[in-house]
Amino acid sequence: MKSIEKSQTPKNKKMTIKIILLAVFVYLAIYTIIEEGPDIVRSISEGRLPNFIVDMRDGFTDGYNGYPPRY
């Protein structure tokens, strides 16, 4: 019995880590849709990039060029 319990323990730990990471990802996705959804739709309908995409782009280019953060 001990060998069966030992072999099942790592699977349970890996499974719970996967479930926790999936839950965090789903939560962040839902939060982004609820909080930023109307702004994203409004920006796209006006023909502009959504603000969070502009912020990410600026952050990547500043980091790549070695500039300090803008905020």
TrEMBL record:
<keyword id="KW-0472">Membrane</keyword>
<keyword id="KW-0812">Transmembrane</keyword>
<keyword id="KW-1133">Transmembrane helix</keyword>
<protein>
    <submittedName>
        <fullName>Uncharacterized protein</fullName>
    </submittedName>
</protein>
<feature type="transmembrane region" description="Helical">
    <location>
        <begin position="15"/>
        <end position="34"/>
    </location>
</feature>
